[in-house]
Amino acid sequence: MRRLRVYPCPLCSGNHLLTQTISTAKSEQLFHSFRRRSHNAKAENPCRAECREKKIEQQLAQEQHKKQRLENRIAYYERGDRTKRAHNLIVRSADMESIAPLAKLLTRAEFYAFAEKVFDLPEVKGLLMEAVNEHNRSEQKEGC
Q1: How far apart are CA 138 and CA 132, in angstroms?
Q2: What stretch of H or E contains 20?
Q3: Residue 140 half-sphere exposure, CB side, CA atoms within 13 Å?
Q4: Residue 3 phi/psi, 5° resolution?
Q5: What pLDDT was estimated at residue 123?
Q6: CA distance 22 to 20
Q7: What is the pLDDT along the chain (144 residues), one digit of tens a residue?
Q8: How far apart are CA 31 and CA 50, in angstroms?
Q9: How far apart are CA 28 and CA 38, in angstroms?
Q10: SS3 of residue 4 by DSSP
Q11: Cβ–Cβ under 8 Å, residues 58 and 46
């Protein structure tokens, strides 16, 4: 909770400060709380009520804008993860084609069947396991 001090508009009579307590996490309740207070008020100056309503609407708009910015940030990071993965897949495919240029001639299904046969060979499985173990060792050394 935070306290906001708002000066009355020049049309309002009196020099009293309007003080209102709002919750930054519950922006949707701002307008409804104003309505409840205005029904409970006995004889409130219409100009002050109008000033208070404008401030509450402004605060509501600010909170909605904050919410939208946070949602945009979440979407940006999620998109970033997907684009990094897509980039990684494209680079690996390009690396495969540069190592085995004849693979360019194969269709996707043919290449997949070929890759299954290659990675099923015991020698290739052993080489892949060696590469993964070496990768893990180098990451552990960097982490220490």
Answers
A1: 10
A2: strand 18-22
A3: 6
A4: -105, 130
A5: 96
A6: 6
A7: 444 444 444 444 444 444 444 444 455 555 556 555 555 555 668 888 889 999 999 999 999 999 999 999 998 888 888 888 999 999 999 999 999 999 999 999 999 999 999 999 999 999 999 999 999 999 998 876
A8: 12
A9: 17
A10: strand
A11: no
Residue with tokens 């000033």: 51
Q: Would you state the structure tokens that stand for residue 109, as one six-digit string?
A: 């299904």
23 by DSSP, 3-state: which? coil
Structure-derived torsion over alpha carbons of residues 75, 79, 80, 84, reported in degrees to the nearest 10: 160
How many residues appear in the chain? Answer: 144
Note the pTM of the prediction, 2 decimals: 0.43
Tokens representing 120? 């099923």
Extract the tokens encoding 49: 């009520």
Helix (H) or strand (E) holding 77: helix 46-99
Give residue for tokens 């919750």. Answer: 23
